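Dock (3S)-3-methyl-2-oxopentanoic acid; give full complex structure.
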Amino acid sequence: MFASVRSLAATAVALLALPTLSAAETVKIGAAFSLTGNAAAYGAQQKAGVQAAIDDVNKSGKLKGITLELVLEDDATSKEQGIAVFQRFINRDKVSAIIGPTLSTTATAADPLAQQARTPVVPVSNTAPKGITDIGDYVWRVSLTEAQVIPSALKVAQAKIGFKNAAILYGNDDAFTKGGFDVMKASLEAAGIPIVDIQTFATKDRDFNAQLTALKAKNPDFLMVSALVEQAAAIVSQARQLGWNVPIMGGNGFNSPKLMANAGPAAEGVMVGTAWNKASADPVNQAFIAGQKARGNDPDQFCAQAYTGVLVIADAIAQAGMKGGREDIKAGFAKVKDLPTPLGKFSFLPSRDGNHAAAVQVVKNGKFEILQ
Ligand code: 1QQ
């Protein structure tokens, strides 16, 4: 009896001493996306993107013996749920890195937990210029900020339309819609375009007639809108119902086909700066699109960014010498350079924000079409 317990113990010690138990070869990646709530249109595309990327990386053999395992959770478009999901990822699932959450507002509440627990976070859709990578050195953002997209998008629109003045409508209770507004205002001012009026709304609002009527009375040549897509579609529809045909440019919230699904023909001609050039003939982009089509999904920018988030983490593991621990991945991010992705060649700036080419798209016949 005594002897057999001892030999069992000896076997257990020998097993523990094995250099590569199969469990050690699985690297868990947590993904927190808005699968329900106000931002669910983005979350569905992000889910499709990470699932495909995990499969593609695992099939490619790029990580040699390492297999990526996805742990997907719903942040429910809420700060509280975002915090709860991050806690589970960090303490229960012991993930090596976290992708998400969907909204900047949720990230401002959840990312500090990951920073505290020294767990890398990869935002793939947070575009508020301030308050995301500032959280700390474990936050490595793949998504371009509004400050990286809007100034050049405005120039493209200006060259096309030649407006002399502008107005802005924005949500004043969300980190992204507020941050986007700051960039719109600064970009118009830098371009010397007078702002004739600014109106605000809250995320829960569904009726924008009062703000639109006030803006229309000032007769601006151009309207910039910083809103999440559910509100964006309602704003565009209600503006056209008022008989107001002002050219509209949205911020990142407009980059979902949900805009056209909800607003229908009212969305025609709406412009938006985007981090994903869907028309790029780059083979990595074409393979990404073909992969999504094969899975029955018509991908949008959010899908392409989420897919890229996984590629960036995989490259960080490779750059760290095929090591997938939290510190390994963080160290690996600093070495990611000109990585081929559906967004183009990807690198990080010293601020740990993503760096790659941006584009501008316009709604034409119910679909986004790349301008330029
Ligand atoms: C943010 C955004 C949203 C529009 C997309 C998810 O950019 O919250 O930062």
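Observed: The chain has two domains: 26-144+280-357, 147-274.
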